[in-house]
Amino acid sequence: MITGPAWSQKLREEIGKAVVGQDAAVERLLVALLANGHVLLEGMPGLAKTLLIRSLGSALGVQFERIQFTPDLLPSDVTGTMIFQPKTGEFTPHHGPIFANLVLADEINRAPAKVQSALLEAMQERQVTIGGHTHPLPKPFFVMATQNPVEQEGTYPLPEAQTDRFLFKLIVDYPTAEEESSMMRRWGQITKQPALAAVTSGEELLALRTQVDAIHLSPAVEGYILALVRGTRALAEKGTGKKRYLNFGASPRASLALYQAGRALAWLRGQDYLSPALIQEIAPDVLRHRIGLTYEAEAEEITTDKIIAQVVQSTPVPAN
Predict the structure, then answer these.
(1) pLDDT tens digits, one per residue of 4-26
(2) Residue 20 sits in a domain of what CATH number?
């Protein structure tokens, strides 16, 4: 039987042939795949976000598609449309790039609301309707969307109700000096580029999810997850007599995300149960896009990660 650490190691080694560093991001992407969730990446241009997801697709041996979001993009450019066939006089469905196992939605906040909604509906329902007929998306199906945190001109920010559909929001930072030096040596040659091979398959990934479902989760840890999520809502309540730093707390999707992603991370680490320490580790990635800061918090330069750290620190940790 395949173990979590062994499966993770072979994928990390293969992805590492192309991607330098980003170990935490790679692990979170594997967790999202096992938990059947999607990921929103935020980072400056040139931080290998596209390379990361393409390398993941190559190592998994599944189909990868990239959609560059622009203001003139149409929903049919993502999902597909009906094409007229002159020979038969009939319309036939033409599948768009969303019909792939791994889809990179590059700069998702550069497309208007209709296009964003088409993508997010496909993410949620895992099916697309073209010409009145429903077409299921392939399995596994995984979306990684990126957005630039600095440049806001000509963008369409995702509403909170839509960002809530992402399992994780990951912050990609600049590499260290050693990692950047290694990157230059690896990718500096124009004629010789790293090539990746498939070390697993989509079918194997789907089968491994049954092992993730077998990870034990005690009632005490279930209560801890609920306490963390409801702790963010308590900070958003009015009339508490304290300064409010949150307009709204995390939704029930956050509880489900901590539950599913926590068990996936436990399996990857070779554990047969979910511990509070793992919940604390993934809490920022699960919660940072599910809570809304007030103007007072922004004025005092309080970030969502600081709020989450405060909630984690003030929430009693169960014994097991």
Answers:
(1) 889 999 998 888 888 887 888 88
(2) 3.40.50.300
Are 57 and 19 in contact, with CB atoms under 8 Å apart? no
* pLDDT tens for each residue of 111-152: 888 888 888 888 888 988 887 788 899 999 999 988 877 666
Q: How many CB atoms lie within 10 A of CB 72?
A: 9
Reported confidence tier of residue 308, pLDDT bands at 50, 70, 90: very high
Amino acid found at 100: A
Burial status of residue 13 (CB atoms within 10 A of its CB: 0-12, 13-18, 19 or more):
exposed
pLDDT of residue 53: 85
Is position 202 within any domain? no
Instruction: Work out whether strand 80-85 and strand 90-95 pair parallel, antiparallel, or are unpaired.
Output: antiparallel
Number of helices and strands in the chain (H, E): 13, 11
Q: What is the mean pLDDT of residues 59-83?
A: 87
Count of domains in the chain?
Answer: 2
Q: Which backbone phi and psi does 305 adopt, to 5 degrees? A: -65, -35
Q: Is residue 284 part of a domain?
A: yes
Give 248's Cβ-side CA count (13 Å radius): 10
Distance CA 63, CA 89 (A): 32
CATH number of the domain to which 225 belongs: 1.10.8.80
Q: Is the pLDDT at 280 greater than 80, yes or no?
A: yes
Contacts 24+ apart (CB under 8 A), 240-245: 243/296, 244/294, 244/296, 245/293, 245/294, 245/296, 245/297, 245/302, 245/307
Residue 22 lies in domain: 4-193
Assess whether 104 and 237 both reside in one domain: no
Residue 264 and residue 127 in one domain: no
Question: Which of 193, 225, 240 is where one domain is finished?
Answer: 193
Rounded to an integer, what distance in angstroms lies between the CA atom of residue 69 and that of residue 212? 34
DSSP string, 245-297: -EEE---HHHHHHHHHHHHHHHHHTT-SB--HHHHHHHHHHHHTTS-EE-HHH
